[in-house]
Amino acid sequence: MSAAAADIAGQPTTTSGRIVRFLTSWAGRITVFVVCVVWTVPTVGLLVSSFRPADEVRRTGWWTVLGDPDFTLQNYRDVLKSGPSGDMWTAFINSLTITVPAVVIPIAIAAFAAYAFAWMRFPGRQWLFIVVVGLLVVPLHLTLVPLLQAFTSGVDVFGVRVIPDLNLTGKYVSVWLAHTAFGLPLAVYLLYNYIGSLPRDIFEAARIDGADHFTIFWRLVLPLSVPALAAYAIFQFLWVWNDFLVATVFIGTSPDAAPMTVRLAQLVGSRGQDQHLLTAGAFLTMALPLVVFFSLQRYFVRGLLAGSVKG
Amino acid sequence: MAEVVLEHIVKRYPNGFQAITDLNLSIEDGEFLVLVGPSGCGKSTALRMVAGLETITEGVLRIGDRVVNDVPPKDRDIAMVFQNYALYPHMSVFDNIAFALKLAKVPKDEIARRVQEAARVLELSPYLDRKPAQLSGGQRQRVAMGRAIVRQPAAFLMDEPLSNLDAKLRVQMRAEIARIQKNLGVTTLYVTHDQVEAMTMGDRVAVLSAGVLQQVDAPQTLYDRPANIFVGGFIGSPAMNLIESRVVELDGGLGVTIGSRTVRLPDAVLAQRPGLRAHAGQPIVLGIRPEDLEDALLAPAPDDQRLKATVTLVEALGSELVVHLSLDIRTVASGDPDALAAVGLEAAPGQGVMVARFNPRSQVRLADDVEVTVDTERLHFFDAATGQAIWQDATVTV
To answer: Are A83 and A33 part of one and the same domain?
Structure first.
């Protein structure tokens, strides 16, 4: 706002004012356009290749379609068809089975936690919050081996059994738990910022109206936090959907359970020559994230502003 | 419906700051009591303690016959209207008003009936389906009122409910809130920093300064008989002129000095305030309300009731002239942190400024030297040391 106002008044005085002025100038527009084109060219090439006949993909570059358009859906049929290491359709269902709970569970837990950190008074609150957010710095890779150990044979601390041997390897529960644990610190932090910035008066009014913490959370906090919840849901969805490492470690490569990312990697291994199949597989993998992103992008932008501008 | 009683209430924060000192206040059943004071005087804190949103450090709070010190807000049978309305932004007007009833598990048809009734009283019926964001400021304010009245509580608590409205709407809502309160007869504690609201709305007004209760009285009494310098200076706009003075004996009677001049006090004043005699020869603080000063050309008076002054500012309001006069006086601060210190700045060294309200027929111009008549029957006298008003032989306290 202030930047725009300064722009109208004449020379912008702030850094953001100067940026806004550059972005709205012709030079700025051309720069942005060029960057967009350069960034999307490989993706466009991938998309075009996925629709080209196999022998043409092998012989010529994707840009030759400009002179000689020849498209087919055969690549997609082949990829979706059952092969020796499973088909993409099963992998798609597997990915969904992994992703949906791995998004819902951390959001549910984080929303409760964020409300408690923001609006409930209990001893050690500050300290606990710092610990939770501090977990953000733990690298995921460091935890893989211990986690796998816990999932396969339980955990002993000084000879005392803390976690029993649940034999979770290869089961979806193990990835859900892992993704929930990895996602929670960021989720708590983001939602805490948003929920903490909701106006205090509303909570006080609700308390006088007779609401307890649970009612306040359920009837006020959740509906008012939809933008932040949606923003985090997109983050977590994209991260889990595109995850390869965690899925490989905990689920393995069995065609019945492996998600699309794992399946795609196998495609590279078994049919590294078949670019036409790889491109089609890659596009199938991207399809759902694209749909999710475009349908929820208004929340994404709004949610990222969480805290700075009240929703 | 119940009376609300505060006995020896103290609020002390963990950092040692004492927001409220020994507050004793009794709001009678059905009474509209306004708690007024400058910003930071603790009036909102007092209200929030009654609501249960702040803990009470010391003292006893009673609503009806119950001591409610440790009762949570929802069980105190009170409703509160917040300064910025605190509406639930994602709920319709109907749901906003019905929220408390739903939580109390009131039957559905009963809820509908009571919300409709509240909406009718507040003229909100056409807007029940709208969201708060689609309403004007005045309508939002009425929804906040609706949320309070639908519960039929023992007491209303209002925390500056009009301060977010524009001036015109504020005047309108002022009358409306007072009317609704009278019709419902619900005990009301109303907090404001606006003395006009205090004067026009309250059955009684309690003036608070720095956490200490100064005076509780009917609005007119507060205006006519302020208990101390603070109340004198706070109530009334433009504010009462407070100046350093001295009681002098004048052949049998008494007079007071105003700068280098002395005005004679009528016998009626001495009869009303026998305590003045004990102050003969001593310094006091003299209070003169702006309307008790008049252009001498329009209100002829004997020489010992007139002052000479220079006009430093004239504000013509149509119905009156607000005139700033410079003369050789020393002004006294009332202790109101919101009062404009700028008044003293206009004056030349050794001079002080008094504000007067002249009849609009007055012809005074900027920089004129004028003679001003003082209505000596309506002067206010305060002890220079204690700040208390001088009435009896001993000074009157609250």
So the answer is: no
Between CA A214 and CA A119 the distance in angstroms is 12
Regarding whether A144 and A30 lie in a shared domain, the answer is no
- Which amino acid belongs to residue A253? T
**Dihedral in degrees, nearest 10, Cα atoms B33, B39, B43, B47:** 100
CA distance B223 to B238: 13
Whether residues A87 and A10 share a domain: the answer is no
Across-strand partners of B206? B35, B216
Provide the domain count of chain A: 2
Q: Does B73 touch chain A (CB under 8 A)?
A: yes
Q: Which two tokens stand for residue A300?
A: 């994404």
Amino acid at A297: Q
Check if B210 contacts A (Cβ < 8 Å): no
Phi, psi (degrees; rounded to nearest 5) at B34: -105, 130
Does the global pTM surpass 0.90? no
CATH number at residue A250: 1.10.3720.10
- Give the minimum alpha-carbon distance from A143 to chain B in angstroms, rounded to a whole number: 41
Give yes or no for a contact between B209 and B234, defined as CB atoms under 8 angstroms apart.
yes
Contact A199 B86 (CB under 8 A): yes
pLDDT tens digits along B169-181: 888 888 888 888 9
Q: Which chain A residue has the Cα nearest residue B88?
A: A202
A25 shares a domain with A148? no
Domain-located, residue A53: no
What tens digit of pLDDT does each residue of B314-325 get? 999 989 999 999
Residue the block writes with tokens 């977010």: B164
Percent of chain B with pLDDT over 90: 40
- Rounded CA gap, B262 and A172, in Å? 97
**Cis bond upstream, residue B360 (ω within 30):** no
Same domain, A39 and A90: no
- SS3 assignment, position B229: helix
Q: Which one of A205, A210, A224 has the shortest CB-CB distance to B86?
A: A205
Give the Cβ contact number of residue B376 at 10 Å: 20
ipTM here: 0.80
What residue numbers bound the domain in which A18 lies?
Answer: 1-44
